[in-house]
Amino acid sequence: xxxxxxxxxxxxxxxxxxxxxxxxxxxxxxxxxxxxxxxxxxxxxxxxxxxxxxxxxxxxxxxxxxxxxxxxxxxxxxxxxxxxxxxxxxxxxxxxxxxxxxxxxxxxxxxxxxxxxxxxxxxxxxxxxxxxxxxxxxxxxxxxxxxxxxxxxxxxxxxxxxxxxxxxxxxxxxxxxxx
Length: 179
Fold this sequence. Notes:
Elements: H1 13-63, H2 65-69, E1 75-77, H3 101-119, E2 124-129, E3 134-141, H4 158-161, E4 170-177
Antiparallel strand pairs: 1-2, 2-3, 3-4
């Protein structure tokens, strides 16, 4: 009589369930990583927009050096300030020779305000100038700052604190320029 040994062929149901569980956990981890990457990409785009806005305004300040020396570039647009109404720009770009340096500075500030409001969520802007340099700061609302799951710390951004924007929802970008 020959003895037949039963050999197992295929996988057991427990092995298949463990493999499916590992795949599911891995896929959830990858999905979380993808969501985190999208949030960081949004932050990067906002920071880039802020840097471009500040750089463009710094160039305008440097061109109008007389108004800069006169202190005509001290402006504030906080979160509660409404965007400028159309028609508030009194100095025309078509006839710049009819404008004083102070009017040009006011026009550039209004255009800067419009750009900040259009390109940054709940954008704010602050400009403080002295006789030698100007500090240009823009800020935007980033609600993920208070979300611990997104890496938020629920603390005030130190750059925002320099312009007395003590709201933990805001991120700020600042540059000091010397025209």
